[in-house]
Write a structure and sequence with these properties.
Length: 335
């Protein structure tokens, strides 16, 4: 298939591009590099030995988007491009709604104009909100607690309405749990701007000495050791999930939703302990109060993805910790 990948230079998009190219698909990357760098394009080429078209394009630029769709025969789109920081979304909500909602609306309008009707969308476990009980199942009601989360809930609704109106359309929303890890080459990985919000990039920056210690947000949650429990999955497994979802859409029509996770919960302390053990590093821990808005436990029921698209994770928490560490070391060596 010829697959247009929005946000293909980002953390998850770049790994999905590698998987798509390795599975023999062709890709066209579109990214405005607002949270990534054009270097990533070279790294994808180095890893795969493949070449492809790529554009510095903002989804808000309807005209440029139209031109790109006019130039290529596109069979399907994977839509990663979006702003993704929860705290930032509470301070600049209109920027988040404009970028994520208007960007997706433009993409859908252009896809419809060019009769491209296959789409895989990056949704998030954040749509399970605070009122559901783990393990989360796709049929549960969705809600959000911050503007970032609402953009995911609203885009899912937009896509559901679009597929109801266009019988030929095939759309899959993938609800990612907590992707960590990096490509085994160490060339691509999670590279957030500024101080990271998420646990694994924070652990990596503490391990390499950029940050003095790891902040453990809360030790009084009703969990096995009092710290937050999440469903961490390797980004390479997540990338494969996109290939599986796309291949499923070759035969299917309609609207689909799948959780992508391992189905296993890991606490903050378990993750830090594993990182220390597999990488032979000792990290300084700073026990803090709970972070606003954090829930105790989040993990997926993944039966639906296993049964319908034939996807299952392969990598362990040890692999995730080893590969994340390799990436931050490679990145700092190349500076
Ligand atoms: P990322 O920031 O690394 O990648 C997103 C990419 O989209 C970046 O390269 C950015 O430059 C680009 N982009 C943003 N707005 C754009 C626009 N208007 N036009 C063109 N390009 C634009 O993020 P990621 O972690 O790879 O996440 C990818 C998607 O998955 C996002 O939609 C995110 O919300 C979703 N998601 C991520 C996680 C996670 O933990 N990383 C979890 C759940 C869902
Ligand atoms: C966050 C987002 C969520 C998004 C998900 C994946 C928030 C409130 N939620 O969720 O919308 O879908 O990332 O991108 O930001 N922790 C620490 N120290 C740190 C960082 C985190 O102890 O420095 C803890 C947190 O309290 C949590 C766990 O680590 O228990 C994981 O945190 P994080 O990586 O931010 O992911 P989520 O909270 O699941």
């Amino acid at each position: 298939m010829n697959v247009l990948v929005t946000g293909g230079a980002g953390f998850i998009g770049s790994h999905a591009c590698v998987s798509l190219l390795e599975e023999g698909h062709n890709i066209i990357i579109l990214d405005n590099y607002s949270n990534s760098s054009p270097e990533v394009i070279d790294h994808i080429k180095t890893i795969t030995g493949r070449t492809f078209s790529h554009y510095n394009c903002d989804l808000l630029d309807y005209t440029q988007l139209d031109t790109i769709f006019g130039k290529h025969e596109i069979d399907a789109v994977i839509h990663f491009a979006g702003l993704k920081s929860v705290p930032e979304s509470t301070t600049i909500p209109l920027t988040y709604y404009h970028n994520n909602l208007t960007g997706t609306l433009h993409l859908l309008q252009i896809m419809e104009k060019h009769k491209v009707r296959r789409l895989v969308f990056s949704s998030s476990a954040t749509v399970y909100g605070t009122n559901n009980v783990v393990p989360y199942e796709e049929s549960m009601p969705t809600s959000a607690t911050n503007p970032y989360g609402w953009t995911k809930v609203m885009i899912e609704q937009m896509l559901r309405d679009y597929t109801s109106a266009v019988p030929d359309a095939a759309v899959t929303c993938l609800r990612y749990f907590n992707p960590i890890g990096a490509h085994k080459s160490g060339l691509i990985g999670d590279n957030p701007n500024g101080i990271p919000n998420n646990l694994m990039p924070y652990v990596c920056q503490a391990a390499i000495g950029i940050l003095p210690s790891i902040k453990v947000y809360g030790t009084d949650f009703p969990t096995k050791d009092g710290t937050g429990v999440r469903d961490y999955l390797h980004v390479a497994d997540l990338a494969d999930g996109h290939v599986k979802a796309l291949e499923h859409l070759e035969k299917a029509k309609g609207f689909f939703v799948y959780n992508l996770g391992t189905g296993q919960g890991t606490s903050v302390l378990e993750l830090i302990d594993t990182f220390e053990r597999v990488n032979n590093i000792k990290l300084k821990r700073d026990i803090c109060g709970r972070r606003a808005g954090d829930i105790a436990t989040s993990f997926a029921n993944v039966n639906h993805a296993i049964e319908e698209i034939g996807w299952e994770t392969k990598y362990t928490l040890e692999d995730m910790c080893r590969d994340s560490w390799k990436f931050i070391q490679t990145k700092n060596k190349n500076k």
